[in-house]
């Protein structure tokens, strides 16, 4: 299975070993036509941080898979990055931003979260490296998380950058680890090692290596073989709808709050210093 996966990774837009392969650069997506399981791989070196273009590709691909009636999806990072699942939202999108592009970015982020959080098919994130800020968010959108360890970190660290994780970021985490733990976590911008994340329930399983993590992800998806897709979809919808409905009802207000504070001098100063610290 994994060997075949590697062959697919380096092929282009054709059927290989019964798998449909779709390459959109930055994002590689394969659907195994035998199993109906899609593997979506983020591939944006050096650290898979999420630009407007990558955001669009993720949202487009999720919506495409939704129409394809797939049986499940694994979301992971290209192996060549070695130690990063996703370095989070691209801070350069927020620093000295072009206002039109910033508005587009924030709107696309809301839409992508809605698509990924509410998929009608089961999803697993195979977290094969650090997963911070928006990286943690996309991992948390999935129904199940397997994290490779022990040396990687995961968490909503936004306050460390001087920015505010919106209600739906925080609610996504609270739905997984509970309100109190999520509150303590987000206000301090806490990050967790793989073992700590497993202990607080932020991830469901850990694994010492990527092949094994991928296998565990497939096992989770296979556990739905005898579950009716309709029952799955309706049940997940009931479970997640209160959180997603808040964003649907408050999209404009949410957008305006972030759009305005992001451009204030004090937030810009914080972002500049954080970017600088990364470069050091
Ligand atoms: C209405 C809509 C509401 C929307 C609300 C938005 C509010 C939330 C805002 C932001 C959320 C976020 O996601 S902020 C980003 C959070 N992520 C991080 O803090 C991670 C930062 N990166 C790292 O810690 C490390 O890079 C790493 C551990 C991920 C990898 O370490 P490594 O040593 O391998 O790589 P480098 O640190 O040398 O980085 C290489 C290169 O990449 C640049 N970089 C890293 N992360 C980012 C990023 N998130 N955005 C932009 N650029 C990033 C880093 O500066 C290096 O650049 P140079 O090569 O030019 O030096």
From TrEMBL:
Key enzyme of fatty acid beta-oxidation. Able to isomerize both 3-cis (3Z) and 3-trans (3E) double bonds into the 2-trans (2E) form in a range of enoyl-CoA species, with a preference for (3Z)-enoyl-CoAs over (3E)-enoyl-CoAs. The catalytic efficiency of this enzyme is not affected by the fatty acyl chain length. It is found in: Mitochondrion matrix. Belongs to the enoyl-CoA hydratase/isomerase family. GO terms for biological process: fatty acid beta-oxidation. This is Enoyl-CoA delta isomerase 1, mitochondrial. The keyword Acyltransferase does not apply. The keyword Chaperone does not apply. GO terms for molecular function: delta(3)-delta(2)-enoyl-CoA isomerase activity. Homotrimer. GO terms for cellular component: mitochondrial matrix. Keywords: Acetylation, Fatty acid metabolism, Isomerase, Lipid metabolism, Mitochondrion, Transit peptide. It comes from the Eukaryota. Pfam families: ECH_1 (PF00378). It catalyses: (3Z)-decenoyl-CoA = (2E)-decenoyl-CoA; (3Z)-octenoyl-CoA = (2E)-octenoyl-CoA; (2E)-tetradecenoyl-CoA = (3Z)-tetradecenoyl-CoA; (3Z)-dodecenoyl-CoA = (2E)-dodecenoyl-CoA. The lineage of its organism: Eukaryota, Metazoa, Ecdysozoa, Arthropoda, Hexapoda. Pathway: Lipid metabolism; fatty acid beta-oxidation.
């Amino acid at each position: 299975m994994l060997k075949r996966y590697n062959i697919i990774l380096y092929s282009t837009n054709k059927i290989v070993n019964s798998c449909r392969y779709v390459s959109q650069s930055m994002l590689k997506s394969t659907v195994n036509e035998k199993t109906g399981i899609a593997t979506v791989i983020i591939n944006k070196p050096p650290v898979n941080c999420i630009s407007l273009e990558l955001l669009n590709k993720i949202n487009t691909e999720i919506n495409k898979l939704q129409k394809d009636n797939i049986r499940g999806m694994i979301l992971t990072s290209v192996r060549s990055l070695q130690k990063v699942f996703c370095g989070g939202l691209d801070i350069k999108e927020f620093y000295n931003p072009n206002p039109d592009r910033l508005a587009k970015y924030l709107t696309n982020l809301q839409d992508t979260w809605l698509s990924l959080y509410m998929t009608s098919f089961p999803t697993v994130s195979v977290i094969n490296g650090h997963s911070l800020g928006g990286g943690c968010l996309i991992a948390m959108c999935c129904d199940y998380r397997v994290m490779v360890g022990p040396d990687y970190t995961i968490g909503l660290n936004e306050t460390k950058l001087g920015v505010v994780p919106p209600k739906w970021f925080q609610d996504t985490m609270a739905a997984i680890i509970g309100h109190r733990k999520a509150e303590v976590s987000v206000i301090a911008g806490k990050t967790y090692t793989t073992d700590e994340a497993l202990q607080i329930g932020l991830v469901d399983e850990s694994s010492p290596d990527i092949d094994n993590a991928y296998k565990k992800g497939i096992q989770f998806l296979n556990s739905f073989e005898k579950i009716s897709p309709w029952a799955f979809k309706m049940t997940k919808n009931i479970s997640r709808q209160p959180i997603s409905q808040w964003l649907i009802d408050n999209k404009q207000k949410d957008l305006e709050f972030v759009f305005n504070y992001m451009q204030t001098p004090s937030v810009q100063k914080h972002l500049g210093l954080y970017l600088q610290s990364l470069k050091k």
